[in-house]
Amino acid sequence: MFTVESRRTFVARQGLPSPVRAEKNLPVLTPTGEFRVTLRVGFSFEDDQLGEKGWFVDTDALDDAVDRCVGKLSNEPWTTIFTFRPSFENVARWAFEDLTAEIPQLTYVELDNESIGVATRYLSRNG
After folding, report:
1. What does the DSSP assignment read for 5-62?
2. Is 80 exceeded by the pLDDT of residue 79?
3. For residues 65 and 26, what is the distance between their CA atoms, to the nearest angstrom?
4. Which residues contact 125 (CB under 8 A, 6 or more apart)?
5. If exposure means fewest CB atoms within 10 Å of the residue's CB, which of 11, 18, 40, 125 is most exposed?
């Protein structure tokens, strides 16, 4: 079995306050609301799904879907984009659902918040 991963790094503004930091009277995280995030998108396929060209799907064709998703996530604060509470968990699930139609056999979507060293991965129920 193969897994192919596409990734893009961008700056995101989540827009949520930190109730834990506020409760402890700690200052807001620096940089305020801006995080360096890497979106990782993985899809899996079996050996017998390789085509005559030696690949399952042309990854260039998937770039537009991944770039569109990153464009939305980096355009403005997540609190203004989404009607749900934009935790990294909820946004990872949203990105998975958003990309499922365009990426065959999508296995996972991961949001790696490099600024604080925490990654959130949403996995396919089939994967």
Report:
1. EEEEEEEEE-----HHHHHTTPPPPSSTTEEEEEEEEEEEE-GGG--TTS-SS-HHHH
2. yes
3. 39
4. none
5. 125
